[in-house]
Amino acid sequence: MYLRGPAEAAARLGPPRLAAALVAGAAAADPPAARATGGCYTRLFAFGDSLTDTGNFISYSAAPGPVARLPYGETFFHRPTGRWSDGRLIVDFIVERLIGTPYWPPYLAGKTAEDFRYGANFAVGSATALSQGFFEKKHLNVDQITPYSLAVQIGWFQKLLAMLASTDNEREEIMATSLFLVGEIGANDYIHPIFQNKTFGWIKPVVPLVITSIAASLEALIRLGARTLYVPGIFPLGCAPRVLFLFRGSAPGDYDLATGCLRWLDDLVVHHNTLLKAKLADLRRAHPGVSVTYVHYSGEVLDIVTSKGRHGFDERTVLDACCGGGLHNANFTVHCTEPHYYRIGLRSRPFVPAAFGPGTIGCFCPGSNG
Q1: What CATH number did the domain enclosing 78 receive?
Q2: CB under 8 Å to 320, separation ≥6 — which residues?
Q3: Angle in degrees, 0-180, between the axes of helices 150-164 and 168-176, rounded to the nearest 10
Q4: The whole model's pTM is what?
Q5: pLDDT tens across 275-308, in order?
Q6: Which range of residues forms the domain containing residue 29?
Q7: How many domains, the chain?
Q8: Quick one: signal sequence residues (predicted)?
């Protein structure tokens, strides 16, 4: 599933803003071995969902859907690449600035060690922190939930590390001089149930399980020798146009007066991010020689929503999708790959959209931003 609106708005500003903030922090945390080579890091390894996926979903899916068609990829690559964006994602800017190369393959598209000389991207659109089997046991329809959860992505990394490093010394050097971006991940663990009519009471107990899964993956990377890890929180789901459309019959008191977003869903996000930050603090105490940094994506989104004019957005449309029809341009029957609907997007509002995976929620806003 693919969310649109303020989250995508943050990502419109993301390449110059979110990426720059992360790059600044990561540069300050350069491991000595990496600095000696003249670069920030030798490799970037990323895990997550369609906020970060640069082609894994499209590589394995027999029916990838709209992401395989224009206008996805239109502005920078001039073709669909599997990114849920008209151009580059935040992570593309990070790898370009930290590693110094625009070439960075999705894991499923690489074949040799040379393909992964700058690292790899393991993120998959619609990915969850919990396994597909977890949701199946909870009697959810898993057709839109990829089997390639975070734990599976960590397994892919272990296989790749064995390919790249034939000795313990080589493995240690790779781990010590690489940057690990773990997330954004977890939003789909809540979005999938929400779009299958599960209640807040059903979803909230899932949050600690999601955090435990993320922590287990971080622990696995640290045990392998990772020294620098960045872990983003999730975006405010209550601001997503398709969510606002789905719950369009909500009572006025269900909305936050300052943002216009659904309060109960954003409270869920705050709960997730609070537990995540606490778990990261535990990891820092347990591993004092490891840098574990929380990335506050949610704050960037809420800043855009509450300070619309400062960021160039109209107060009336900041919560709207950039194309489509119906309330918030979020009618479920309208797809942005239909030429009429994506051409009505405002070309003055370029973006790199924030996504939580492929499926029933899709959006694209044409623009000049790569």
Answers
A1: 3.40.50
A2: 5, 241, 328, 329, 330
A3: 130
A4: 0.86
A5: 999 999 999 999 999 999 999 988 888 988 888 8
A6: 15-248+262-297
A7: 1
A8: none
